[in-house]
Design brief:
elongated; disordered C terminus
Amino acid sequence: MESLEVLILSGCSKLKWVPGFVGNMKMLSTLSLDGTAIQEIPSSIDHLIGLISLDLKDCKSLLCLPTAICSLKSLKNLNVSGCSKLETIPENLEEIECLEELDLSGTAIREAPSSLFRMKNLKVLYLRGCKGPSPKSWNLFLCLRLFLGKSHDPMGLVLTTLDYLYCLSKLDLRDCSLCEGAIPDDIGCLSSLEDLTLKGNDFVSLPTSIRWLNNLKFLNLESCKRLEQLPDLPSNEELTVTADDCTSLKVLPHPPNIRRLRWFFFRAVNCYRLVGNQASNNMIFSMLKQFIQGTPPFVIHSFNIVTPGSEIPKWFNDRTVGDSVVVKLPFNVHPTRSKLKGYALCAVFAPQENPTAPELDCLGCDACGIKCFSRVGRSKTSLLVKGIYYKAGQVQSDHLWLLYLSFKGYDPNNYWKGAFRKFEFSFKTFCSRGETKKCLKLKKCGVRLVTEQDAQDLNDPYESISLYKPIDNSADVQSSISMEKITEHFDGAGSSESSSIPATESLQKGLKYD
């Protein structure tokens, strides 16, 4: 056994006992016991001084971890997710100095030791689904506990400081029943944090200190049904915010200093509280304005927003019903040899049941989406501009996709530098092979060639931006959702790198979304 480096017993569902580790096993670096029926780990595990990865995922009978595990000075990855009977972890966990990734998702842990939050080298922490025995008895039993504190729920525990987790790059707290005040105000001290998932929680607002997360790239707030407003966002070079199905969301953040941004994507699918909110409409265009005003050395690559809407704003001077729009260039104007900064596109799409001939794509899930293509002059080659996708059936009504790309920041293979007088943008819907009954359809689209002057035009305080069609009795409006009905309903309830590719090529590498 002295030369054994990897021991994998995954899925041995009848394995209930692991013999003690004896002798010299310093070469063993990977031990996988996931899916077994073991109830405990022998304390002799401390003999595995070279162990780097320990996988105990879905050991449903596992009751505890031995304190000897803290002697594993080389351990970098520890996974106990799905160990539904595991209620505690060792108090001196911080002694595992090399630990970089810890997954406690789906465990029965009520209190985490304070040492968990003093793990200076921890980079990834998963606590998803740690809800506790009852929301009435534990607000944040998932153990964000360094000190005992009071929240708006007197039975709740909150974390009062995160100062020591300065290497943490990913934090997943989805479906943890986090209530208002459960997230500490100093979350902004996580200077290395890039990916923050708060999906499916119960808070109404977020700490304002989130704006100081200077490396944050992904913020997932999906299905936070009580969330009413977003704080100001960090001024980072790349930022994706997903707020789909936040049905109480009615206030958007003030635009960050997005002149620095190279990538910005904000999704608010089914957030109907935003419908008719003129302040939110203007906020969207205020973000666009700052993008247009972007100056060197930062190069604007992509700006995307998806929100409920059924109307192409008049600012888009080329508008059409259907899925494509043609732009004719003025005389002596060329995209890369003039004062043109880029182009802004807008498309209205809606759900569609049982499409007659859906375009199929090789996405690995039941999904549907939209691809945006461009074609210059008489060229037969289409350039994939951007793409978005959703779970089939997720989109419930008319939505608007607003995107902006700069000519200088996005010009693969000198695509825009040829001689042409017009170009066409088209939007094509698709669905995965596993889901062909629910898809999307394009209703209308618009485009505007953006100049430096447009930034000033967007700043006109007297111009009203309307994203939703006024309610009337026409048949077309019946497909939209009445703001009256939306308000009544919810009051009662309480990325990708682009490339020149054929239109049929999969978007697996082209779409950027978690």
